[in-house]
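[Protein data]
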Amino acid sequence: MAVHAQGELAKDSASRLIQEPSEAGIYLYWLPLGAGGSYVKLNGRIFEFIQAQLERRLPLDLYHTALKVRVPEGLFVVENSWPIPNADGPSRGVVVEGPVFSRRVRRLSALRYEVRLWRDGVIADVAEAVASPQWVSQDPEQARLLLQLASYVPPLVWGRDEEATGDMWNSNS
């Protein structure tokens, strides 16, 4: 998601903001792209600058989203993100892996992303989240359905529009 100013996102969502999830439901977190790290932040800014030039507009702030899903069985993090170095996939709930840029480079761990369904997981840099968390649903059945469907996310190429939807596949898809 691109937003001109962090304040706009906060204004639009202030009525839905809650504290750390304690009730059943789906909670959305908005994290500034590259929060806590320079590599993703720099590449995201370069990408957005080029895209803005092509579209003849000013560059926008970029955000990454993550979900916390609380059900009676526990708390889960659902996130589409870069792999965590030096940690095996099952330990962090990896259910899908996909390539970044091109299917030909999928063997390189630096050019892969993963979808996590992580019980008692952690959202890196959650302290930098903007206007978060937002309570998306308080229905435990919707939360359970989301958890069941997470492993069915298609491993599309990150940064491409393989499904011709008019939007590229990324961490907010």
Notes: The beta strands are 2-3, 25-32, 61-71, 74-81, 94-99, 112-119, 130-137. Residues 2-152 form one domain. The mean pLDDT is 80. The radius of gyration is 16 Å.
